[in-house]
Write a structure and sequence with these properties.
The structure is a single chain. By secondary structure, the protein is α/β, with parallel strands linked by helices. It has 2 domains: about 5-45 and about 275-400, Lyase, Ornithine Decarboxylase, Chain A, domain 1, CATH 2.40.37; about 50-265, Alpha-Beta Barrel (TIM Barrel). It contains 13 helices and 19 strands. It has helices at about 5-10, 50-60, 70-75, 80-90, 100-105, 125-130, 140-150, 175-185, 200-220, 235-240, 260-265, 375-380, 385-390; strands at about 15-20, 45, 65-70, 95, 115, 135, 155-165, 170, 190-195, 230, 275-285, 290-295, 300, 305-310, 325-330, 335-340, 345-350, 360-365, 400. Strands 3, 4, 5, 6, 7, 8, 9 and 10 form an 8-stranded parallel sheet that branches. A 6-stranded antiparallel barrel has the order 11-14-17-16-15-18. A hairpin with a 5-residue loop joins strand 12 (about 290-295) and strand 13. Helix 2 crosses helix 4 (about 80-90). The chain is elongated and about 80 Å long. The two termini are about 20 Å apart.
């Protein structure tokens, strides 16, 4: 993609484009240009200053090292550039959900310690050890890392995942000591941390932390050095200082959103959403009463009106559920989305507005509080969480760093 042309078309000389995250591994393919050289496909803008602000606010609250969670393409914001911004802001660790994400960061020159919280197999061992990626472990398979590291004259970094009640992954807390002791005895392994995942149930989280601390104490009593202990995600950070332990793992908060309705209402950190989702008007039409739009006549005009077609749809990750509920902002005015949302198109009710023209920019997700179009507001309109809305955005869409 000719980035310079795209950026100039947006009229923002201070923007820089960055590519999709490596895990997608799919070409964007040819794109049709509008007459003036502008792109008609949708794009996403990321305010990296907002991410740096959010990081600083979280750091101020927790006062412990931070493992910034950049899994799922940095919650839809763009893996590489967001990770670089967090590295620059002072993140002590980065956490990915897949090995391909961790490898992409190493390829991009990110040097901070990276924990792959996702699974691995024997086929992945050489890449994990060779690239200096720390791996989450909870079974005897960790011995494979030890063997590879010894052959390479290295030590493989691991974080031992202890299951305290999430029942998703991890060695059970009441059976953790034998495994911890065994892994600590392997010369090719270096235990850089132990961790657990809280369920975010207020009462049960207290039980989980007690279980985690008990398992850690048992290991330390037999002389095992456990490295950094960590359990708190964005929710845990805001629920109790006791959950911070030696390090925290913020995710959604780094991108400007709160983990639940209570913390959103309190707005204690003054978080700043970082993402805008934009598209262009690609067609306009005048409708007479009874005229219909889209498949199965999804919308029928109740009166004479004008409609605009936007060049995006659910294949771009925009929630189909927002059809008939959400809004688009075009030329500073807000227009309702019609129910007709398809794979590559969606339609807007312009009423009697005749100012909107083909090529106009439309904002579908905004990053301005009070706009009524941030992801947490949209989540209430369509029944999906803001996590789902952000992470669901296609990794093939260009991310533009503001």
């Amino acid at each position: 993609m000719k980035r310079r042309i795209f950026i100039e078309t947006l009229g923002a000389g201070t923007l820089t484009a960055f590519p999709p995250a490596r895990p997608a591994r799919l070409p964007a393919g040819p794109q049709t240009e509008k007459p003036a050289g502008g792109r008609m496909d949708p794009w996403i803008e990321i305010d990296l200053d907002a991410i740096a602000w959010n990081f600083a606010q979280v750091k101020r609250l927790a006062k412990v090292p931070i493992m910034a969670v950049v899994k799922a393409n940095a919650y839809g914001h763009g893996l590489v550039e967001v990770s670089k911004a967090l590295e620059k802001a002072g993140a002590d660790w980065l956490m990915t959900g897949k090995l391909a994400e961790a490898a992409a960061l190493r390829d991009a020159g990110v040097r901070r310690p990276i924990l792959n919280f996702g699974p691995f197999s024997g086929a992945d061992i050489a890449e994990i050890v060779g690239r200096g990626i720390s791996q989450s472990v909870y079974t005897e398979d960790a011995a494979l890392l030890h063997e590879a590291a010894v052959k390479l004259g290295k030590r493989a970094s691991v974080h031992i995942d202890i299951d305290t009640g999430m029942r998703r992954t991890g060695v059970p807390h009441d059976k953790a000591l034998p495994l911890i002791y065994r892994l600590a005895s392997l010369s090719g392994l270096k235990i850089d941390g132990v961790c657990t995942t809280l369920t975010e149930d207020a009462d049960f989280d207290k039980v989980q932390i007690a279980r985690f601390n008990e398992a850690c104490s048992a290991a330390e009593k037999v002389g095992v050095a456990l490295g950094l202990k960590h359990a708190a995600s964005s929710a845990g950070i805001m629920d109790s200082p006791a959950y911070a332990l030696d390090m925290i793992r913020p995710g959604i908060a780094l991108y400007g959103y709160y983990p639940n309705a209570r913390t959103r209402k309190e707005d204690a950190l003054k978080l700043r959403p970082a993402l805008k989702f934009k598209a262009r008007v690609i067609f306009t039409a005048d409708l007479e009463p009874g005229d219909s739009l889209s498949y199965l006549r999804a919308f029928k005009a109740p009166a004479r009106m004008r409609a605009a077609t936007l060049g995006l749809g659910y294949s771009d990750g925009f929630p189909q559920e927002l059809g008939g509920k959400g809004f688009a902002r075009i030329r500073g005015k807000t227009f309702p989305l019609l129910k007709a949302v398809t794979a590559n198109h969606m339609m807007v009710d312009l009423g009697d507005n005749r100012e909107v023209q083909v090529g106009d920019e439309a904002v579908l997700i905004d990053n301005a509080r009070g706009s009524g179009m941030t992801a947490d507001v949209l989540s209430g309109q369509c029944g999906l969480s803001d996590y789902r809305i952000l992470i669901g955005l296609s990794p093939l869409l260009p991310r533009i760093a503001v």
